[in-house]
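Hi everyone,

Forwarding the result from last night's run.
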Amino acid sequence: MPTTLDSLYRYPVKGLTPERLGSVALQPGRGVPTDRRYALAKPDGAYRADAFVPLSKREYFVLLNTERLAGLRTRFDEDAQTVEVTVQGHRVLEADLTTADGREAFVELYARVADLPDGVRPVLAEQEGYNFTDNAKNGPRMMHSISLVSLASVRDLSERIGHDLDPLRFRSNVYVDGLEPWAERDWVGRELQLGEVRVRVLDETGRCAATEVDPTTARRDVPVVRLLHEHCGHENVGVFAEVLSGGVLRPGDSVVPGDPVVAGSPVVPA
């Protein structure tokens, strides 16, 4: 079976709804456009818009600490800069994130979702040129990487633990299929050709308790990280890759790994 790109996703607001893409144009050294552009920072945390430094995901409202976020559905309109929020198919908010009123309405809704005390609001974080990815604190190169997950590995893990896992638990940008389970673990340091796009794999993706949350039910139901360790001997699902040469990615594109890393060579070039 040939290895192909199955699906593409972005996550405009960190911790909120994945948005499936029909295609995506990538540029060298940059991630998926609009991916994790916004985040909901804790009001009593370390985030400061006027003195910003990269922070741990624990400084934001994400599935790791607020699983009920998965119960709402958001859709970001990149042209209009608006976000629509629905609950069980009913629209409860459409907010213009370029206006103070729109941003306030958005954080007010999520204050209720997170059950914050009266008058306490999340801070809608946005920083020019910054993406609130989990590995952003490891430097610009990792911040602007794309994430890839093999569906074969998710299926294998599901079989091992006896629970059918939705691949969207892993919140990847790129899902590929046609590999042997866990073959992507050997990609670190190698280049891949993804359709028109050339990438270099930088590292595996270590997983956290956010994967315990079912993206459909918004319930924390499976201890994925513990089960990964017990059944597979590691806690990684997927890899991060930097874009070397740009182009347009589309579902169905071929995925061709380059040569293995030569023993003794650096995994991630300086």
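Helices lie at 100-113, 140-143, 151-161, 224-232.

Cheers,
N.
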